[in-house]
Amino acid sequence: MGISGFFQYIANHGLSPAAINVQTFLGQIGSPAHLDLFGAFWHDIRSRMIDAKQNNGNIEDIGHRLALELKSLFGTTNIIVHVDGAPCMEKEKARTQRAQKRLSHEAILDDTVKALEKNSANGIWTPRRIMNRITKALTEVHVITGEDKDQLTKGLQSIFQVCRCATEADSCIGAHHVWTPG
Questions:
Q1: How does DSSP classify residue 2?
Q2: What are the start-end ranges of the E strands in the chain?
Q3: Do 171 and 91 contact (CB within 8 A), yes or no?
Q4: Core-most of 38, 59, 99, 113, by most CB within 10 Å?
Q5: pTM summary value
């Protein structure tokens, strides 16, 4: 999460980050805080999206519920939420590794589903470990698309100002906080 002046504030007051009441801090800074949504809440958002897709849920509703939770968590709506855009070229190696990992999990998923189908055809009860393997593999192959991000953004905009960044949210947040000599 990028909050302008956060680390300077704690350094000036001799505090650890855990000792800060974020709601009090956000009330004192006067300018909007900038939140890298996926940087802070990636696993939670991914889990919610997977669940929604499996149950014909609405991703825009996820964004609205998340916005309500963020408002309660931070105690303010004076936050600009940044949603990642296209990945930057510097992360090409990481993207390649993730794609390879996804292919590996797709292969595991295919093999596991075949075992499930074989057991089912033979009237054999499928062990829980196979079902757990399928669930894990489904989670690992899930990709949050641009359309998913757009729908999530619509829900978040019900409460917050949202920046749908052209690239990574952290670089977008950095562009909002360019240092100029005093």
A1: B
A2: 33-36, 79-83, 161-164
A3: no
A4: 59
A5: 0.68
